[in-house]
Design a protein that fits this description.
It is a single chain. With about 425 residues, the chain is mainly alpha-helical. It has 18 helices and 2 strands. A two-stranded antiparallel ribbon has the order 1-2. Helix 3 packs across helix 7.
Length: about 425
């Protein structure tokens, strides 16, 4: 039944009417985004990543605050973390104050050396492992197959752990300075400006959450994320965080059944549930930013891409042709994302083919992800390109084949036929044929 509903919606949202210039077509194109997010949630993979991150959060919350304590103590600003921790627990109602105090106490004990150097190293290792899990979750929703290398991971994670708390506290400090300035005090005496200040202060926690989400969406996935998609995802996640937080707070405050069933464990259950919802919101925002940047994936979603051998050959030739053409003409260079837009193919399919061509040393990627021919295109034969596509691994173990002479003869003849068709043609010949 559910599959039939999604098939019906798919036909409407991606049909001819949705691709037209009419206002209805524009509305249907906008509705593709909530439809794609709901479809992905119901398939369950994003939910599983959110559940896994709940467990990771339990292990890393104290080390994260403790590590931030150790850094901020140097500047005498470690107590500025308390309102941030409280903001995370605020949807739990009256229990938020007690939980915040306990976390701050535990983190203070850790950061002052009570657990010893070995224990602190273990907690730090747990924290790095948690960040890796967060990156894995973001890479999953962004369809990134390759995680950061170990050297880059340590460097970037260390920078995030050190600079993150400093930037956050610096932002809070500058906000306090601005609010306590003479100009701000004078403006508060005006009724209208005083109301604006009160509104801005009430809105500031959500702006901070949105800014944090936007930064995470830009820097955590192991791919280049543009600012606008990250901002749209961060703003949406921030709104969801505020709305779900209000509902959850009302549920905790007015629902007595949770306390009756779980007794003293009610707060723990509520904290686990809120942590799960928080990670789910974060991943949904990341998925939205992915769809904004990769519109070609809206219809495909999380379905695994399986191209036929013929499609792989054709795609490899198209990629090499476009890259070589722009190289010879000095035109705009191609990246995986721009190729996906041009060829109207999902980015992950382009990335897989480009990866195979890179391994075969037919393409190289520059530091800014621009694709270039690995050598003179007059020395790259079409046989090489098609050979790479035909040998591209599917991810499955090859079955052990039994020799059958009749079949082997046919396959050898087919192999010889396509090689003869390409003969000694090079990529330069293909480019010049269209000149």
């Amino acid at each position: 039944m559910l599959a039939a509903v999604f098939n019906w919606l798919d036909g409407w949202l991606f049909g001819d009417l949705a691709n037209g210039p009419s206002p209805i077509g524009t509305l249907l194109r906008i509705l593709r985004y909530p439809y794609a997010l709901l479809r992905d949630l119901l398939r369950g993979q994003i939910n599983l990543y959110a559940m896994g991150l709940v467990y990771a959060t339990l292990l890393s919350l104290i080390p994260l605050v403790a590590f931030s304590f150790a850094i901020l103590k140097v500047f005498g600003a470690h107590r500025d973390l308390e309102p941030i921790i409280y903001e995370f627990f605020r949807p739990l109602g009256d229990a938020a104050t007690d939980l915040t105090a306990r976390v701050m106490q535990f983190a203070d004990n850790v950061s002052t050396g009570i657990v010893g150097s070995v224990g602190f190293a273990l907690l730090l290792w747990t924290l790095i492992g948690t960040i890796k899990k967060v990156e894995d979750g973001f890479n999953f929703v962004w369809r990134v197959e390759q995680a950061r290398g170990i050297g880059r991971r340590i460097t970037e994670y260390a920078a995030l752990l050190i600079l993150g708390p400093l930037l956050l506290v610096a932002f809070i400090g500058l906000s306090h300075v601005a609010l306590d300035s003479t100009a701000a005090q004078w403006a508060r005496e005006l009724p209208l400006m005083n109301r604006v200040f009160a509104w801005g202060i009430g809105l500031s926690p959500y702006l901070v959450v949105t800014a944090m989400f936007t930064a995470l969406y830009m820097f955590v996935p192991n791919t280049r994320v543009a600012f606008v998609p990250a901002l749209i995802g961060g703003l949406t996640a921030g709104i969801l965080w505020a709305a779900v937080g209000k509902v959850f707070t009302a549920m905790v405050v007015y629902t007595t059944r949770l306390t009756i069933v779980y007794a003293g464990f009610a707060i723990i259950v509520a904290a686990l549930l809120w942590t799960y919802l928080g990670w789910l919101i974060l991943l949904v925002g990341a998925r939205l930013s992915f769809y904004v940047q990769n519109r070609n994936h809206l219809r495909l979603g999380l379905v695994e891409i399986r191209l036929s051998a013929q499609e792989l050959e054709k795609l490899a030739l198209k990629i090499m042709y476009l890259v070589a053409l722009s190289h010879t003409q000095g035109a705009s260079r191609w990246s995986v994302q721009s190729l996906a837009d041009e060829l109207r193919m999902p980015g992950i399919a382009i990335a897989q083919s480009v990866g195979s061509l890179e391994q075969a040393k037919l393409i190289v990627a520059s530091d800014d992800d621009i694709l270039l021919p690995a050598r003179d295109i007059g020395h790259i034969t079409l046989n090489e390109i098609i050979g790479v596509a035909r040998s591209q691994k599917s991810g499955q173990l090859p079955a052990e084949g039994k020799a059958l002479p009749a079949v082997d003869r046919i396959t050898e003849q087919l192999e010889a036929a396509w090689r003869l068709t390409c003969a000694d043609q090079t990529l330069r010949d293909l480019v010049e044929a269209n000149a």
